[in-house]
Description:
This protein is an alpha+beta fold. It has helices spanning about 60-80, 115-130, 145-175, 210-215, 235-240, and strands spanning about 35-45, 50-60, 90-100, 100-115, 135, 140, 175-190, 220-235. It has two domains: about 35-45 and about 145-195 and about 210-230, 2-Layer Sandwich (Translation Initiation Factor IF3); about 50-140, 2-Layer Sandwich (Alpha-Beta Plaits), CATH 3.30.70.120.
Amino acid sequence: MALPSPPPARVFAELLPAPAPAPAPAPAPSGREVHVSGSAELSAGPDRARVSLRLGSRKEAAGAARSSVARRLEYIAQSARQRGVPEENMTVTEDFSRVENTYQMEAEVCIIFSDFGKMQNVCNLLIEKLGTSVTISPPHFYHTPEAVDTLRRQVCVAAVGNTRRKAQEVCQLFGQSLGKPLLIREEETKEWGGHIDSHLSNSPDSLTLQERIQNATAYASCRVFAVFEIKGKENRRNKLL
């Protein structure tokens, strides 16, 4: 009697990639994480100030009215240049008109300062030399867009740093070692105070210089959420050695 033929052989195989060498120290087991949130608040004073100077002259002769204003305009520009104000930071607007039987020449000079000490020196000099022939408005302080962007970045980085320090202290409390960040999320940002460049100032003329700077100071806060891995217990033996 012939034996039944054996069933065909079946082979099951699964190809797996070669395991990567374990780093030192070994990665934390899955689920060993610390979840924390942190915040920061920073402020930045204004980095620019605009000063407007107005002057005018009314004469019977058109040339006399023009030359009277031109001489003072040149003195203002020269005084600012000698104290390091770039030419592009000065803007002059002129208006010439006839009033009854006279000619009237009016001009406005807007000067942008990044150095507030230079601003005070220039204004004091012009008041001393030109007197009532020139009207100087109180300075208008503001932030450039670059300064605002810098404040936003700095407060976010500060919040992340505070969050990491908090996570590190929590791990140390339980004798653990903080690992790499797994998630960092910016949850909330706030900005208040200060103002971007504007031709209109809401500050009354009675404010002092320091009060104007304080009113124009910008504030920003940021809150972040972060997840860090926990590498494992601290090596107390190595610390003792």
